[in-house]
Each structure stands twice: as structure tokens, then as C-alpha cells.
User: Fold this.
Amino acid sequence: MNQRKVGAILSYLSIGIHSIIGFIYVPMLLMFLSKEQYGLYQLVGSLVAYLAVMDFGLANTTVRYYSQLLAKKDTIGQENLLATMLRVYTGIAVAIMIVAIILLYILLPFYTKTLSPIEIVTAKYVYWIMIFNLMIVIPGHIFVAIIQSHEKFVFLKSVNILNVIAQPILVFIVLHFETSIVALVVVQTICNIMMFSANAYYSIFKLNANFHLHKWDNKFVKEVLIFSFFVFLPSIISLAYWKTGQVILGAVIGTVSVAIYSIAIQFSSAFMSLSTAVSGVFLPKVSSITAKTDDMTEINNIFIKTGRLQFLLLSLVFCGFIIYGKQFIIFWVGSSFLDAYLYALLLMAGLFVCLIQSVGISVLQAKNKHYFRSKVYFILGIFNILASIPMAKKYGALGCAITTTFCLFLGQTVIMNIYYNKIGIKILDFFKQIFSMAIPIFVVFIIGLSIEKIFYTSSFFFYLSKILLFVLIFILLTWNFAFNQYEKDLIRKPINSIYRRFRS
Assistant:
């Protein structure tokens, strides 16, 4: 089995391990840390996240150019590229340190009213350890890029999986002896140093990567930075939606609200990740269609097909969260985090339509019209930051959730649907298809809600049993009253194929 196939298997394994450990990690931390400490950890992490994107997407850029040079067997070009990128990364690391110093002294006065003197001191320690962490992680991207370019995915994914498993184990051991977020980030930094060392050793001694500057090419560096900027831009815009809330809440309310809001963000992030399972594979196909013809008939078919599939999946999760989300939060992190239920529900509702239309992003990219979406996302991201401050002062974390939901709905649902219609996507036909599926799903929702109200229990076993029953009812009713022939065949064919192989 080749590197790509094994790497793909390890990627799926890594996603599974990430999900399981992510589920265990938060309650484990809350077992050792107070809500205030956890909120402080999330607050500082949100601040540092703005600096973490200062790698400007250079890892992907390095892979692109280094792979081309490997294909050409241009040894001098490879050495020159790596030496150039190493200097660029070093410059970024220095820039991060300078910006970190400025950012700390600009923002610190805003937190003196909401954080205690001890929390301020702790935050400073955590902040600088996280910055040191970045100084390791960001230059380390060059070694990851080298390994990716050589397609040594087994080593790369194996190291990543080991890090994902080892980190919580070490955190658990250390927090037994030293219960502090400083100890927590020190362990994370040590793990990153070990991963950096492993990747660097493999790149230099196994893949014979050489860093030798033959010439400094200003034109090439400019080209690289411009390419990287458009890779990096979506990341910085995304922070305006998913990290700004914690930063603002820490300044106007305190660390407890940050802790609760961060739980809501985790739910909405998991909800977002579900949409990529269907739409992520469609960019090559959509690009191929647009290259051959301007006719939108086939693209509209893809848009509706994927939208229906995503609607089924996301409706199951969204309806399930409405019914069972409160009790899940109680079982997972405790009743003191119950406010996160409403915040997560708002954010998931704001995301819902754009997630079932996520293949639209592939259509925009294929037709080279994605700049419009970036502009809309950027403008509303700035508005989200500005509006969240007064809303947080008046309504706390609820104000941040309402503001972000409004911006997501206005931009990704209202404005983008108008634009999709303008470029030839039949939005009315799309929503007719979606509404035709909504009635049986609403019936399932009412049944599930009724069962939960009548048979409410604090038993975890019966709680899981009700969820399984809800999923079973959802499958049965949607299969008979919502699924079309195409969707049924998507499930039937793989099952029949497996059955035939098993029989033979």
C-alpha cells in the first residue's frame, strides 16, 4: 500500500482520535481547573490566535513551490527555496515577537477591571509561553512542508497522531501535581518542541533537505507573499467571527463568560465541520464543468443534490441538539455551563443555510467569483467586531452570540443567496427542494421532543437510548418521505456491494 493510501487512512484515524480526545479533553481540564482558570486559558488562547495566523499560509505556499522543484529535480532551486523560506519564517517570528509586545501593552489596560491582579500575572505568563510556542510552531511549518512535498505522509501523520495522544496524557499527569494553566501550556510547548525536533530530524537527515542560499530573489519573495496572502486572508477573517467574542467578553465581563462562550464555539465549530464531508470533493468537478461550458444546468443539479444531502445530515444534528443539547452539556461539562446551549443554538442557526449551500463556495472558486464572498465576509466581520462590544456590555455572551448570528445570516444567507441567483444558480428551485424535505423532518422533531418531555430522565443510559431511538425514527421517516431515488441509491449501492462481497 502506497504512502498516499496509508496517509489517507491515517488522516481519517487522526480525525477520529481528535474527535474522541476533544470530547474527553475539556471535561478533563475542568476537573483540574476552575471555570475562571479555564476561561482565562481560552481568553489568552484567543488573543494569541490572532498572532498564530501570521504565518500567512506560507506552509501551503512552500509545498506548492518545493513540489514543483522536486518534480524538476532542481537541487539548487530546492536549496535556495528552503533557505529563502527559512529567512522569511525567521522574519515572521521576529515580527510576531514585536507585535506580541505591542499587543500586550495596548490590550492589558482593557482587562484590569475584569481580571484580578493574580489573573493578570497568570495571563502574562501564559501569554509569553504561548508566544514562545508560536516561535517554535511557525518556523516548524517549513519541515512539515518538506515532508508533505516528498509525500511521506505516513511519518507525518504518525507523528501528529502520537502528539494528539501524548499531549492529554502528559497534561493529565502534570495537572495532578501542579494545577495551573501555566503548567498546562508548558506541557503543550514541550510536546510541540518534540514534534518540531522529529520533523526537523526527518527532513534534514532522512530526506536530505539542504538550506543554502544561492541568491536572494526579491521578485520571487514578492510572488510568494502575494500567493500566501490570499491563502491567509480567510483565516484572519474567520477569527473575527470565532475568536473575537472571547477577547471582548474577557475585557467587558470576565473569564467565566469566556469559558461558557468557548463551549458554544466548540459546538458551532463541530457543526461547521459536518458540511465539508459532502462538499469538499466537488471543486474539481465544478471546475471541469465551468471550463467546458457556461451552461449552469449541471451545476444547479450538483448544488441541489449536495444541498439536500447536507440538509438531511445537518437537520438530524440540529434537531437532536435542540432536544438533547441541554442534557448533553450537563453530562459533558456540568450544569454551570448550561448557558452555552442557547449561544450554540443561535450560532448553529445562523450557520445552517450557508452550510447546506457550502458547495456554492466551490462554484464561486471555479467561476473565479469568490472575491465577492470574501469582501462580504470581511465587511461583516469588521461589523461583528464593532457591534459585539456594545452588545457584550449590555447582554454579555448572549450579545456576542446574537451579533455573530446576525452577521452570518445577513452575509452568508441573505446577501450570498441574492448573489448566487445573480450568477445563474436557481435559488428558488433549491429552496423548493429543501422545503419538500422539511415536513417529515419537522414531524420527527415533534416526536423526539414529545418523547424527551414525557420520558425525561437523568440516567445516562436512558438518555443515550432516547438519542438512538430519535436517530432510528429520523432514518425511517426521512427514508420513506424525504429521500429521493438518488439519495436512496447512495446508501443502497455500497451496502449491497459489501453484502455481495461477504456472500462470495
Notes: DSSP finds 19 helices and no strands in the chain. The CA atoms of residues 18 and 164 lie 7 Å apart.
